[in-house]
């Protein structure tokens, strides 16, 4: 596909223009996004999917901090397929997943792919927010051009160290280099899982907006995601444990069902360390390491607290420490502990174990199978997207070179 100089120049204009917002403190924020990483290429594979991960949640957290009420527009499957390619999750799944993110006040189902002033006014939004990457239509136009011109556009920082492309690479390459406490060998650290940080033009001519460096957990990031709320008198303290890998709609439905078991629930999620998950799941699971899974779970509105590296067996000491009233597990298989014992023997004996049927049997394995099944379609889609981004990047490079020459001539 050819991209006209006019389209590229319009994109460049709005990428470099500082947008002024004339509104005061009391305003609504509208994020019209397809809730997917704007990724294009890695050095090994070229895939991109619409999985909702902690990077998207962090974008919404930042957007909510800019205003008082956050509305998130979510596109239909048809819109995403037209501009980006086939989505992994259905629109119904994506609607529910976005609603479950605790910073979201409202969603707009079937939001238009191009955000216009008419859309902002329709939902009484003062401005819209997007990450500091670029979003292009199928014909290479900036989807936020109109709102940028009017000064009703703001940007939030892209979360470093996360990319849907990287997550997919972990699935397809079956590496373990991403596990938090596994030593990284030169054989395991593939280009997909250990991609260096990107500069403006990206490595080897690839788009920089989808580069991923190693994710580094910080106490500040955990504080930003955590609720900070202690259990109150009268709360029902509910404990659940698991991998919660590639946090998806199956997890959301389960946690929502657990949350609804009480009028005043305080849900604690115990996350197993990577090596523990790999012991009972096998292959290269978990796809996301424990630090990544921590943020994904903390972003869910049904979760009050997370235990990082929870013991596999739910012991009496754990129940007493957190004053647990109820222990819940889904309909999925319970694997025995290393010594062959039942990890839920204590709560079972105390009569506080409840098996919860969320009505959703979707698993992380199912997500991986969806990706493998459609990998060729996603590769073709990703190549088209990269072509659009690279056209803009090359134009930016040429413009910068021209400015440098003009500055040099001015000095002479």
Automatic annotation (TrEMBL):
What EC number(s) does its UniProt record assign? Answer: 2.7.7.14
The keyword Transferase is assigned to this record: yes
Domain Cytidyltransferase-like, by residue range, is 48-168, 240-331
Instruction: Show the GO MF annotations.
Output: ethanolamine-phosphate cytidylyltransferase activity
- Give a Gene Ontology cellular component term annotated to this protein: cytoplasm
The organism sits in which domain of life? Eukaryota
- Which pathway is recorded for this entry? Lipid metabolism; Phospholipid metabolism; phosphatidylethanolamine biosynthesis; phosphatidylethanolamine from ethanolamine: step 2/3
Extract the InterPro entries matched here: CCT, Cyt_trans-like, Ect1/PCYT2, Rossmann-like_a/b/a_fold
Q: Which GO terms describe its biological process?
A: phosphatidylethanolamine biosynthetic process
| Keyword annotations from UniProtKB, A to Z | Lipid biosynthesis, Lipid metabolism, Nucleotidyltransferase, Phospholipid biosynthesis, Phospholipid metabolism, Transferase
The answer, when asked if Lipid metabolism is one of the entry's keywords, is yes
NCBIfam families of this UniProt entry? cyt_tran_rel
Give the family this protein belongs to, as stated in its UniProt record.
Answer: Belongs to the cytidylyltransferase family.
What is the protein named?
ethanolamine-phosphate cytidylyltransferase
This chain's source organism reads Pygocentrus nattereri (Red-bellied piranha)
């Amino acid at each position: 596909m050819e991209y006209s100089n006019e389209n590229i120049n319009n994109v460049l204009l709005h990428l470099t223009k500082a947008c002024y917002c004339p509104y005061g403190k009391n305003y609504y924020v509208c994020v019209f996004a397809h809730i997917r990483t704007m990724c294009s290429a890695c050095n090994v594979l070229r895939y991109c999917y619409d999985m909702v991960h902690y990077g998207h949640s962090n974008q919404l957290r930042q957007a909510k901090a800019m205003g008082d009420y956050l509305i998130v527009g979510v596109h239909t499957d048809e819109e995403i397929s037209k501009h980006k390619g086939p989505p992994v999750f259905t629109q119904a799944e994506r609607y529910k997943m976005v609603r479950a993110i605790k910073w979201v006040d409202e969603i707009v189902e079937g939001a238009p792919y191009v955000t216009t002033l008419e859309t902002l006014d329709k939902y009484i939004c003062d401005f819209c927010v997007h990450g500091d990457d670029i979003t292009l239509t199928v014909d290479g136009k900036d989807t936020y051009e109109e709102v940028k011109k009017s000064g009703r556009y703001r940007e939030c920082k892209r979360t470093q160290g996360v990319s849907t492309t990287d997550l997919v690479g972990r699935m397809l390459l079956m590496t373990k280099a991403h596990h938090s406490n596994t030593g990284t060998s030169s054989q395991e650290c593939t280009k997909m899982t250990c991609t260096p940080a990107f500069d403006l033009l990206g490595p080897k001519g690839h788009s920089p907006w989808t580069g991923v460096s190693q994710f580094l957990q910080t106490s500040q990031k955990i504080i930003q995601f955590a609720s900070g709320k202690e259990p109150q008198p009268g709360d029902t303290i509910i404990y659940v444990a698991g991998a919660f890998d590639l946090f998806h709609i199956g997890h959301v439905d389960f946690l929502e069902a657990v949350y609804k078991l009480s009028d005043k629930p305080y849900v604690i999620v115990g996350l197993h360390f990577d090596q523990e998950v790999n012991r009972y799941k096998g292959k290269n699971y978990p796809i996301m390491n424990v630090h990544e899974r921590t943020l994904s779970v903390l972003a869910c509105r049904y979760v009050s607290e997370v235990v990082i590296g929870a013991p596999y067996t739910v012991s009496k000491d754990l129940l007493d420490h957190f004053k647990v009233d109820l222990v819940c597990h889904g309909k999925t298989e319970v694997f025995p502990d290393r010594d062959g014992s039942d990890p839920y023997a204590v709560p079972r004996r105390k009569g506080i174990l409840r098996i919860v049927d969320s009505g959703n049997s979707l698993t992380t394995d199912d997500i991986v199978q969806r990706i493998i099944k459609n990998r060729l379609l996603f590769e073709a889609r990703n190549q088209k997207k990269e072509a659009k981004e690279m056209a803009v990047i090359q134009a930016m490079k040429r413009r910068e070179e021209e400015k440098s020459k003009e500055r040099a001539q001015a000095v002479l």
